[in-house]
Amino acid sequence: MALKFETGFDPAYGQAVSVAPDIQRITARNPSPFTFHGTNSYIVGRDTLAVIDPGPDNEAHLQTLLDVIAGRPVSHIFVSHTHRDHSPLAARLKERTGAAVVAEGPHRPARPLHIGETNALDASADTAFVPDIALPDDKVVDGDGWSIRTVLTPGHTANHATFALDGTGILFSADHVMAWATSIVAPPDGAMADYMASLDRLIERGDRLLLPGHGGPVTAPRGFMRGLKTHRKMRERAILERIRAGDRSIADMVKTIYRDTDPRLHGAAGLSVLAHIEHLIARGIVESDGAPTIHNLVTLVV
């Protein structure tokens, strides 16, 4: 399947949009080049509810969630990962509802920082977040008329989780798979090897509908995810071509590979290239003049 992104999305700010039986989507008004039109929160259930990804600490979004909840009990708040556009509102929503906050765990990097390396993603991490309940892989949380299964999908972040609504073929895919764009995989918070393994896992699951953290649904998941996998392999080939052409720095590769990309995203693009390079180094295809960082130089292994 050719990879085709769907960008025709109406965020319907301040409203709930029904996306499946007993599932409503509310999109926060936090648009950016990284969040598309904003972060999607989902309310699951009819009587006693679950909230998936409460979103950023935004007063208007909190009020919309409470308006849609409309006084019904909320038993659980599920958090997919600890970027500031997904997890911070969990604390205030818990205060208002008494729900248990559940997630894989606190924020952590996918690998330790190398000597002299700084984490360019520090500002995006919700390091204060601690769930009430840490969810292991394949854990089922039963609610009132719904069961939600944890499917751990590290890659975008080390603690990234997706959530399957058992018995429906619906998976809340957060930032791992989105219809509007590829997921950012940026070291040290994320790792390409993890991302690709998680992508394979979701392909094997065979869910019929993915509800992502940004933008609209993925309605043909298996074909789309195969396209994502091909896209990543093509990006890896492009990096190898630039190294063969004489590029040794990530900055030089980004200038060519991402020449048609919004310049505001070039920093993230550089980290994505670094993620691919780490994956190539681990497989013995390229080598770095020191620990692989955004500033080190790389060459092909002869």
Q: Helices and strands in order, then pairings?
A:
Elements: E1 17-20, E2 23-27, E3 40-44, E4 49-52, H1 59-69, E5 74-78, H2 89-97, E6 100-103, E7 133-134, E8 140-142, E9 147-152, E10 161-165, E11 170-174, H3 192-205, E12 209-212, H4 221-244, H5 250-257, H6 266-282, E13 286-288, E14 298-300
Parallel strand pairs: 4-5, 5-6, 6-7, 11-12
Antiparallel strand pairs: 1-2, 2-3, 3-4, 8-9, 9-10, 10-11, 13-14
Helix pairs in contact: 3-4, 5-6
Protein described:
There is one protein chain. The mean pLDDT is 95. The protein contains six helices and 14 strands. It has helices at 59-69, 89-97, 192-205, 221-244, 250-257, 266-282, and strands at residues 17-20, 23-27, 40-44, 49-52, 74-78, 100-103, 133-134, 140-142, 147-152, 161-165, 170-174, 209-212, 286-288, 298-300. Strand 1 and strand 2 (23-27) form a beta hairpin. The strands form three sheets. A seven-stranded mixed β-sheet has the order 1-2-3-4-5-6-7, with helices on one face. A five-stranded mixed β-sheet has the order 8-9-10-11-12, with no helix packed on it. It has 302 residues and is of the alpha/beta class. The radius of gyration is 19 Å and the shape is elongated.
